[in-house]
Write a structure and sequence with these properties.
The complex is a heterodimer. By secondary structure, chain A is an alpha+beta fold. Chain A is 37% helix and 28% strand. The chains are: A alpha+beta, B alpha/beta.
């Protein structure tokens, strides 16, 4: 098990830093590309949400990121001290609406839900904690082990 | 890798080849290039996504805005080259039915030019 912790300034660059960290872990741990991409997409949604909404663009604030590579599992935890907000409470968007009426609100969390194996939210003290887990499939684990 | 957009003019059709990743950091780049292409009246648009690694909801927001603008102005926007990965994201987001999507670029250029 390997864990990396970062404290990121709450700016759009936080998303890039997170993506770069995942790229590095992918190489170091021979992680499957799809699993890493799933996590990168989920973290983009979650971090962008914290930067834009929880902190309203105030880049003097911070966001904590932990990424753990475990046996058959890629896990990330995002921590912020913004107002209590459970992203899992956001309803799914109406996917049947035609183009002119389609909205993207809720689309990000829909991706998080569908791409992650498990998502858990907790408010502890004055902080939001969101845990994202992407389990590796048996095929992904086999591929990781080499030929 | 951040996003890179290559442009090719094919008569009345502008082909934008989107390479890399469209996330919340790079979506404004795609938005700017789409706005530039849609800024030329009368053109139709092809988005070739064959070299797109993935896109997040920020990328879908940009596509949605471009699709709405094209629709309002009676211009065609055709997508092509979706990898299985990108196709999966379109499916999750309910975007497969919102756009004309064809397999390959030449077919997309024809569809955008002739409206077939």
């Amino acid at each position: 098990v390997s864990t990396v912790r970062l404290t990121l300034a709450a700016s759009p660059a936080a998303v890039q830093r997170a993506a770069e960290l995942l790229d590095r872990l992918r190489q170091e741990h021979a992680l499957p590309a799809d699993a890493v991409a799933d996590m990168q997409i989920a973290l983009d949604e979650v971090l962008a949400n914290v930067v834009t909404h929880a902190y309203g663009g105030d880049d003097s604030r911070w966001v904590g990121l932990r990424v753990t590579v475990g046996a058959g599992l890629l896990e990330a935890e995002v921590e912020d001290d913004g107002p209590p907000f459970d992203p899992l409470s956001v309803p799914d968007p109406d996917l049947d609406a035609p183009l002119e009426e389609r909205r993207v609100g809720g689309l990000g969390i829909l991706f998080v839900r569908r791409l992650m194996s498990e998502v858990a939210y907790a408010r502890r003290g004055d902080r939001n904690h969101l845990i994202l887990r992407r389990r590796l499939t048996a095929a992904e684990e086999d591929a990781r082990g080499g030929p | 890798m951040p996003v890179e957009v290559r442009e090719e003019a094919r008569g009345p059709v502008v082909v934008l080849e989107v390479r890399g990743r469209v996330d919340s950091a790079s979506a404004p780049v795609l938005q700017e290039r789409l706005a530039g292409a849609l800024g030329t009246p009368g053109t139709h648009l092809v988005l070739d996504l064959a070299a797109l690694e993935f896109l997040t909801s920020a990328g879908f927001r940009v596509l949605l805005m471009a699709g709405k603008q094209a629709g309002r102005e009676g211009r065609r926007l055709v997508l092509c080259g979706l990898s299985p990965r990108v196709h999966q994201l379109f499916e999750i987001g309910g975007f497969l039915d919102l756009f004309r999507i064809v397999p390959a670029r030449e077919e997309a250029v024809t569809a955008a030019r002739d409206g077939v």
